[in-house]
User: Fold these one by one.
Assistant:
Number 1:
Amino acid sequence: MFNNIIAIIAISFITVGIIWAIGNFTHPAKESTTTHIKGVLLVAQDNLFNGTNPDIIVTVNVPKKLVVLNKDFVRHDLIVDKLNINTAYISPEQDFTTAIASKNPGTFEYYCSLHPMTMRGKIIIKAA
Ligand SMILES: [Cu+2]
């Protein structure tokens, strides 16, 4: 009797182990493909970018990836007139990827056209 219980428990563990192994094989954990990509993430939330509208530093002739993610309840966009960046309206939970690139150094303002009073910061292109 006691041996039967031990056997049932052992078989249960083996069964669960096999199911777990098959699950891992058919549904492997997703590896993040973005962690090694250098770039800038601006999260639009509470009518600010990243809470502080941070300066973004970019080197001349070294394009930098820019992802704008909208975690707000209203639409936002990001525009840099002189760098020809315009994400168009980004809906809540949507994102848009673009690039910051310039052949010339300078300071350029980025802003949201819907909330230009609060969502405004600087892109600084520095010499190489
Ligand atoms: Cu906005």
Number 2:
Amino acid sequence: MIGDMTTPAGHDHHSDQWDKQLASLERDGRVSSPWVSQAVQWLIDDMAGPPIEHVVDVGAGPGFAACAFAEALPSARVTALDPTASFLERTRERARERGVADRLSTHEGDIDSSLSALASADLVWSSHVVHHTADPVDALRKLGSLLTADGRLAIAEGGLPMRVLPGDYGLGAPGFPARLDATLDEYAVREWGLPEAATGGAKDWPVMFGDAGLVPVQSRTFLLDRPAPLHDTVRAYVVAQFAKVREQVGDRLDRADARALDRLLDASDQVSLIRRPDLFVLSASTVHIAARGSATTAAER
Ligand SMILES: C[S@@+](CC[C@H](N)C(=O)[O-])C[C@H]1O[C@@H](n2cnc3c(N)ncnc32)[C@H](O)[C@@H]1O
């Protein structure tokens, strides 16, 4: 996903908190689908050994990636696990729309208490979930325990923040977009209690794999490049993300930056995100792969 710092949470995963994010995760899933498809294909290519029979998507949200795996692997079973019932309902609906419902099942549960109920998996995918857990290293250990002997754990975490206009957006004092990112990071750590190790960069994910008794295999970053002119639905996504940013951290910005953010969201302003013809989406999302025991890549096999 793209603007992940604007999702809720902290350590608990009360479904009612997440429930409210359905529309936002749906928009995000649609905009993100090009990089997610690339990542899915990359993972499958890297595992060009024994056939992949079972994929588990942990914290699957409304099921975009789970469906992408089911489509890309026509003989595999896919399990989508999430604590939020409405997301799983949407996942089942999406699976029916995409004609993969016979191979995709859903499981209501979370990393802490539900993984032992699942069959082991050749591939465990978890995108933008682990940093929401109280103890990311422990979560990685639990995710790793779901793997078959040659299985792979792939987590999508981090990358580069989204940019939507050239340069400094031409508004506010120099550095306005970077200050927005920093304010959001600070908010995520302080308000939601997101573990600093996972968000603040104190440790990198491959290092945390090692701490969790897993072997880091490789990391790769996928670019999402949606150039201007944007389709209306993508523009609506950008506007919604910035509206959420204003709601969350608008009062933490200095006066000039708060004014710049207001202008970006003011439909009557020529420079607003709603009107500018040069609006784009550029971001980067990183996927980190780990294995149990001593790992080999497809190239080495
Ligand atoms: C930011 S969303 C990411 C959704 C999807 N993976 C994506 O990348 O678009 C985080 C998801 O993790 C789920 N979640 C939160 N805490 C969880 C936990 N402890 N175990 C499993 N899933 C959790 C939420 O219900 C939500 O669907």
